[in-house]
Amino acid sequence: AGEVLKLVLDDLSDLDRSENGRLPIELKAADPRELARSVVAAFRAAAHDKQLELFLDISPEMPPRVVIDPLRVRQVLFNLLANAVRYTVHGGVRVQVSAEAVAADRVRLSFVVADTGAGMSRAQLALVLGRDRICTDGAGRGLGLAISVKLARLMGGQLSAQSELGQGSVFPLTLDAAVAAARNAA
Questions:
Q1: pTM, whole model, 2 decimals?
Q2: Nearest to 75, CA basis, from 105, 38, 100
């Protein structure tokens, strides 16, 4: 609960900074596998309480370290998983993490969050994913997704969605990243 509240407050702060062009992207070497594991672990209890299955699939081709903004990638994944667990009543949520080489030292990272939840209509998707300026109704619905779209763009990536009412949703986040040198064993 504390982590979710912190996320909401961070999202509101980031909303203000993104609207004013002051939201920094801080690139550094990070392990995308560990990042995904930590976000999924944060939702295990909530998924268990709802009797949902929660899966994490990580491609064996994933480099051990890439240059990304781990804080912002974590924030996007946290928003996607929060919605997936929140709006899924039965079935489960699956997170898939993969990398495809695009050059000798660059990969296209893909983080896909798929659920068997309520889904969204095309109009709802267009509203949430197509906002240039974010306005919220009283409940803040869609705020995390709209901020996640902005964060993906700021990182040079893309967050898209496929969804149908009653059929669940799939949210792929793609980012290009440099492969970082492996840590020295000491």
A1: 0.84
A2: 38
pLDDT in tens, 86-142: 999 999 999 999 999 999 999 999 999 999 998 988 888 887 776 544 444 434 456
Of 12, 21, 172, 7, nearest in space to 98 by CA: 172
How far, in Å, CA of 95 to CA of 99, rounded?
A: 14
pLDDT in tens, 51-100: 999 999 999 999 999 999 999 999 999 999 999 999 999 999 999 999 99
Q: How far apart (Å, rounded) are the C-alpha atoms in residues 168 and 90?
A: 10
Q: What's the confidence (pLDDT) of residue 134?
A: 41
Sign of CA dihedral 24, 25, 31, 32: positive
Q: What is the C-alpha separation between 90 and 72, in angstroms, rounded?
A: 29
Task: Round the average pLDDT of the chain to a whole number and report it.
Answer: 85
CA dihedral 108, 112, 95, 26 (to 10 degrees): 60
Block residue for tokens 């609960």? 1
